[in-house]
């Protein structure tokens, strides 16, 4: 347990250094600083992976049961996606904003419950549950990056309209690319979330005696799926693009934040997290 605590502390400190260097590069572009920040982020991903494997070996289950475990896995997903996107597309600002979110999640984890009670673990442990949670977190990771792309779109659109020509504007991808990346991420996220909800419903039918369709988190999760599905429908059927779709995407992401808050509600059977 001590070695896991030391690894977690190292992750937080190195992560903070990486973000500070990315911020320095954001203020005053430096290829050397950016490269150091990237390699520190790679170290963070490696340590997170080691921490996750050690936790899995110690607890003898895929560690995504407690709030601490799910937030940690979500942070790992964000770091993984940002490294992949940085390698493929070299969008430095996306990496910076994504990892500010990832670091905030790790910081919140200091206040989260790390261990599930043995009774809860025995009752809830199931391959269906682990796949359900993993797919949902992957979908939320996709939606998070899509939201950041939409946020960047709105910022760039405003800067262009106000003719704010500066070095930050030059580092942003074109509006068309930001819109396209956001759409493609949601295109992957929606089927992942749909599969997660289907598996979650099957698991709950087997394991939970309560009526899950009256559960607030289940209802909001269905609403999240509906809103993101409408996003795709508006894009494909009516050809929505640009600012209107970016605002829709931002509103959809706010539902995900609401869903997270409901996880700990006494009204939800998800409160065991």
TrEMBL record:
Alphabetical GO biological process terms: cytochrome complex assembly
Record-linked InterPro entries: Cyt_c_assembly, Cyt_c_biogenesis_CcsA/CcmC
Residues covered by the Cytochrome c assembly protein domain: 66-267
Record's keyword terms, sorted: Membrane, Transmembrane, Transmembrane helix
Membrane topology summary: Multi-pass membrane protein
Transmembrane annotation, as ranges: 6-24, 36-55, 61-84, 91-111, 131-155, 185-206, 212-233, 245-269
Record-level GO cellular component terms: plasma membrane
Localization annotation: Membrane
MF (Gene Ontology): heme binding
Protein name: HemX protein
Organism: Aneurinibacillus migulanus (Bacillus migulanus)
Lineage: Bacteria, Bacillati, Bacillota, Bacilli, Bacillales
């Amino acid at each position: 347990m001590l070695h896991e605590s030391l690894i977690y502390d190292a992750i937080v400190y190195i992560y903070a250094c990486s973000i500070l260097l990315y911020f320095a590069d954001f203020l005053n572009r430096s290829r050397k600083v950016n490269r150091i920040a990237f390699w520190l982020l790679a170290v963070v991903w490696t340590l997170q992976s080691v921490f996750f494997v050690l936790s899995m070996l110690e607890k003898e289950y895929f560690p995504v049961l407690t709030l601490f475990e799910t937030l940690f896995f979500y942070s790992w997903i964000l770091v993984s996606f940002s490294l992949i996107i940085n390698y493929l597309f070299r969008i430095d600002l996306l990496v910076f904003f994504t990892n500010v979110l990832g670091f905030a999640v790790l910081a919140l984890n200091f206040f989260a419950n790390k261990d599930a009670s043995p009774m809860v673990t025995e009752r809830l442990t199931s391959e269906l549950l682990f796949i359900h949670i993993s797919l949902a977190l992957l979908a939320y990771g996709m939606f998070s990056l899509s939201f950041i792309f939409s946020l960047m779109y709105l910022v760039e659109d405003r800067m262009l309209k106000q003719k704010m020509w500066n070095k930050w504007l030059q580092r942003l991808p074109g509006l068309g690319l930001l819109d396209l990346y956001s759409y493609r991420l949601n295109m992957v996220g929606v089927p992942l979330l749909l599969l997660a909800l289907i598996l979650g419903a099957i698991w709950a039918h087997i394991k939970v005696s309560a009526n899950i369709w009256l559960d607030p988190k289940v209802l909001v999760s269905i609403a999240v799926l509906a809103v993101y599905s409408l996003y795709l429908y508006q894009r494909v059927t009516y050809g929505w693009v640009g600012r209107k779709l970016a605002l829709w995407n931002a509103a959809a992401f706010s539902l995900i934040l609401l869903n997270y808050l409901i996880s700990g509600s006494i009204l939800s059977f998800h409160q065991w997290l």
